[in-house]
Design brief:
Layout lengths: L2 H15 L2 H4 L6 H25 L4 H10 L1 E2 L2 E5 L3 H11 L4 H17 L3 H25 L21 H18 L5 H24 L5 H27 L9
Antiparallel strand pairs: 1-2
Helix pairs in contact: 1-3, 3-10, 5-9, 6-7, 7-8, 7-10, 8-9, 8-10, 9-10
Length: 250
Amino acid sequence: MSVEHLIRPVTTAVRSAVPAKLLKLIPKDSSVAVVTAFLALFGWAFISIADETMEGQTLGLDNAVLIALRQPGNEHLPIGPSWLQTCMTDISALGGVSVIMIVLLAVAGFFALKRKFRMMLYLFLSVGGGACLMFLLKEFFSRPRPSIVPHLQEISHASFPSGHSMVSAIVYLTLAVMLAKNTSDNRVKAYYLLVGMSLTGVVGLSRVYLGVHYPTDVLGGWCAGAAWAAATYLIGDWLESRGKVEKEDP
């Protein structure tokens, strides 16, 4: 049974319960309706986290998590075996500029080989726009970096939202969505999305482990990046329906 068949009964039930005047606001396509719901959910979650964070209500829990990830009596050493810190540093690099650019160029090459040049342009515009949003959010909130534990990696810029977490969500989820739109196999679609979410997740966790971000920084980055990826899907679907970008492969 496909994802479409699983979603359709839910959207049908919602439509039957919504007044007729509001039905025009609900997308007819089931996948678009679900992605729209995710966009609203992650957008609301980011605003809520940002509000609580800026009021200082999460600082106690944030600091407790960071301290729990260090060895008792020695805040310079993280918990776990010595190789774990090296592993987390390597994983963190997956959200860094160098690796992100390599991934983007590799996927752009894939679209170029398939002669989907408008899709390739949309890729760069989507990711570039998301990166600009990330810098604007950092400047707006200007949250200081954690100071309760020593940083295990060099840092720059403000703390909220986590740049690595947000950019990895923007890039890996956006790429997963765009690649999923280029296949009609639901299993392949699910695989792309699972890989994108997994990469996004481990990058965020590594930033907390290294002590360079509060947990709420990472949560905020995940939510903002996921909301951007959802918006990318919706805009891409709209452009595709109007022939502005190439359609998915049969």
